[in-house]
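Aim 2, interim progress. The first record below pairs a target sequence with its structure tokens.
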Amino acid sequence: MKKSIVFCFAVLFLVSCASIQANNAPQTELSNKDKVIALLNSLETGDPAPVGYINPDNYIQHNLMVGDGLAGFGELLKNIPQGSLKVNVIRAFSDGDYVFTHTDYNFFGPKAGFDIFRFEDGKIVEHWDNLSPKAETPNPSGHTQFDGPTQATDLSKTKHNKLLVKDFVNTILVKGEFDKLGNYFDGDNYIQHNSAIADGVSGLGNALDAMAKQGITMVYHANHLILGEGNFVLAVSEGEFAGKPTSFYDLFRIENNKIAEHWDVMETIIPENERKNANGKFGFK
């Protein structure tokens, strides 16, 4: 190709070619989840067709480092070193008008990321994400940030599992009522994918104690969103880590009505004077 993949994408966005693609592309029965996966993969492959899944006239961006709308995203893509962007979608789930993904990225360096997309009338109209540098080694129990089950089961229990996680986040993480931990876990059985924490409820406790001795605090102020499909539930929360405003994305796997496994990404929330859009980090509907 005479033009780089990144430049092609930027041009596609900036000239609103998405609407042309949408009008000319054959209509398929792709689910919203499949549309998101295709769009994310296209960032690496350069396939222009999935751009048509975005509403070119109404696309709200909540990544605070990116300008609003398609033009903002196109400007970002222009600045990515040619051939460096890699995308490996590990998990993808849907909940009503939302699709959320867990992705292994190379995006200005290796990163772990969660993305949330909101749809209206089959088109993507809003995007949130949380990104952090990818750990170079497994955690103390040998788990990476991405390994473990990937497919949702127990679809009929989605509502129940979402309520369980919402209650856990508000009771334990926000209110700090740690005497109630036993209500949410099967003893000490708890698989942990945080890069610094070992398995088990005891592993979490040991890590929090170690941080406290170093003067490092992790505080959850509020939960903003709970999304789920079957036995996988994502909680989006706001708080502080080491004294800095932080966005917490926590993905839980539920088994036998207990929390069995956990993946997460924490991202520092940048100050308002550094932001490229005014939509806020959260702002869920």
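The second target in this work package is listed in the same format:
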Amino acid sequence: MKPLIGMPTDADWTHRGFKDYIDDRVAQGIVAAGGIPVMIPPHDVNMIDDYVARCDGFAFLGGPDIDPTLFGEEPVAKLGNTSLRKDQFELGLCRAAFKAGKAMFGICRGIQIIGIALGGQMYQDFPSQHEGAFVKHQQDAPAMYPTHHVTTVPGTLTAKLLGEKPYVNSFHHQTLKTDVGPLLKVTAQAADGAVEAIESIDNQLVLAVQWHPEFLFETMPEERALWGNFVERVEQGG
């Protein structure tokens, strides 16, 4: 039986109430790797345990900025749109899934949610807050085109799947700090030090990346490997 992959949705407010959605490319990536994508509206923290019990693994996706008050900071001037309810739901879901031994995959905002949920710190605006930042992390090129390289840490799962210097796309201005807490390790960085991938230390529950492999998996074999590995980790119970 194919595994069920829970995916917290974005939730935009409209004149008709909240509209929940995901990028179809993420669902395609999961289906291509042998999983069944299931959308999770991020509205009710009281349902987190039910979602964790019913889903076999979780994908945390791209989306708005993360509310800095949830990691002990006040907002800086260059902070973008945030969604407190979405943030609170996803942080709670991530912690519960990790505790339950459910495998997770993070994309862009997703790597940040996983990092913060498990004890890490982050930049609200990497270009203005990190001395030496110079890589263009918000590309103007179409999403299916990679625009900069990252360097992986030898011996990590990230390096095994992607090689030494993966070529990636980039659509972010927030990023994790290298202090990712006691449960995680940094496994790839950009040339200016931006954290580009993380893994869990003592198990294979977590692999997350800062770029968007959902736009690259059809043309780049190494990006397909990320999706296949995710479903494999889910099937193995992390």
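The chain has a mean pLDDT of 95. This observation will shape the mutagenesis plan for the next reporting period.
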